[in-house]
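A note from the maintainers: we've had questions about how concatenated examples are separated. There is no special marker in the raw files; a new sequence line simply starts the next protein. For clarity in this README we add a label.
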Amino acid sequence: MSPIDEAIRKMTILLVEDDEDTRALVEAQFSHRGFTGLSSAASGAEATELLRQGKVDLVLLDLLLPDVDGMEFLDKLVNEYGLPVVVTTCRDDKRTQMHCLEFGAADYLIKPFDADILILKVEKILATIHLQERLESSRRRNQRLFLNILQVMAKTLEAKDPYTKYHSENVARYARMIGRKMGLEEKEIELLQIAGILHDFGKIGIKESLLNKPGALEPDEYEIIKRHPMVASAILEPLEELEAVIAFIRHHHEFYNGQGYPAGLAADDIPLGARILMVADAFDAMRSKRSYREPRTREEAMQELKSCAGSQFDPEVVEAFLDALATEEQRFVRDRERRAAEAGEAEDAGGDS
């Protein structure tokens, strides 16, 4: 038996059939062929309960069930659960068969059916699912490897510019803070984290002399710098799962008033993740020492965000970030006071001894 044959015989199949004799026949035939993951239900309710309990790879569905409409249940299995379904029914008419296939059935068998043909159809469907899962798993591994390589290269980029050391980590941290304060879901916050790490990745091809140039850039030099969001987008394009991240990075220099780059988007036309990155990036840039200026204080940087809210920055994002910074500051003060109190108690205990 090939590895694929072994794998598909361990996959989970749900037989939904109200006729006891048919259930017994199908269970016996599948067991004889070495399938170990077959379970059965006599009604739609039983099938729904089994679906809640664990993973199912394929459903064998009798259309005539005692408690549910077979076509409606087929639609639910295909469109809500995303499962391949082989319909088994005594309805020997083309109209029913066409409706089942239109509803998304993977195949259609008329009772009484040949068990060998049923198993052959099931094997083909499961083999396809297994191969698709292997390909998807391989693609995810390759994407994770590619992302790890990009993160290493982003670190290399920071090494080219000593003035931006830890910049990407700081931007990622600030972006997470904003995302949480704005009530974003954890998955969205994870995307912000990735975007923060990679937001300046497009600068990888820019000369160090330009990145570290003291003083103002010439117009043509500024145009070179402005290309970095699009360069990063092009490099990241193979990462299909990071489509949102790519959009965040591409547009993280768009101004809320439409005066930014590369597309001149404004307000809500700018992806929220890009608006968040813009604030996080700008704040850390102001707080960092650059070749042409000293860093601004925390208060000065916060005031600049307030001053530019509505023009450069999304006012809601600025408000969320300032609230997050205030919360962080309060936590820092509480922790410092707690540590001081603990140190005082330890000194008192030492004196008493």
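[label: protein 2]
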Amino acid sequence: MKKVAILGSTGSIGTQALELFDHYRDYYEVTALSTYENIDLLEEQARRFKPSRVAVVNPEKAELLKKRISPKIDVLAGKESLLEIASMEENDTVLTAVVGIAGLEATLAALEAGKDIALANKETLVAGGSLVIEAAQRNSCRIIPVDSEHSAIFQCLQGCTSHGEISKIYLTASGGPFRTYDKDSLKLVTAADALKHPNWTMGKKVTIDSATLMNKGLEVIEAKWLFGLDIDQIEVLIHPQSIIHSMVAYVDGSVIAQMGRPDMRIPILYAFTFPERLPSQVEAVNFLSCGQLTFSEPDTNLFPCLSLAYKALKIGGSMPVVLNAANEVAVKYFLEGRISFMEIPVTVERAMRSHQVIQTPSLKDILRVDREIRDFLA
């Protein structure tokens, strides 16, 4: 039985993971759960899965939960509580599914404690890729991606014996809800429009990132660290049907693709069953009814966030930290109606231009730069 702690159990990935674990009670034991402040759902999850600890980042909400939950379950409070449950001795694997840079410190804490990581937090590798990969190698820990595209690449690489066999990888993107829009149309879109993703059901932040193509840009940076690739080995393709989740091109001319319905239960479950597979309650693709599979280049003139991500990766150092922090702020402002959709990349670029790059940032540097960029854009 694998013992799992879930950071961000009340979010989209966390709730789907728990639904899967419900079907496989003989395979998985939930040791700890966390939320930022959604204590109603966390209480329900704790009653169902009976973890030894739960963490609530909002201290006031944590105090409320203590009065409502079994005294057999320890309720931890504050940002430090994520680090504590991530490094619990009884954990085998930690699912990092919190939103934003909050996942970085907790992931590092889990790795230093020798825990394997099921990674569903892009910002962890975007902001601290070198630190995370070094910690994983130093402590002989596995990082298995949960993101659908990186899970696809991970699956396509099974059987690959060396990096020299890889020509490039293709990260596919649906193109989001505004794929067919022109510049004038994009000026008029609202947050409600942007949250209507055509294929995937995701959290708000990731859904907006998908609409701007920043989601794919963050995935490019992630892929560099996860798979040890050069920037010119990572290509993005628009694939509106979301059937092919990503592909690996090999030096002999072969291309291996991972295909399936756009359902996060497939990559979530694979991260916990690897190298084996269990039924996921997701039907296989019916190729006779799914229609044509099409591909095109992303339009970086209309969606410049993708170009900004490539630029941040090329510059390196602390620049991806700036990209990530500025994007988190810009998405928040857009959801609040404070800026337009078209101002999201403008906000990110302004922050990038303001920054003096630190070539080899420490964790302290990363967290400081993150705070400085948020203050700069406040």
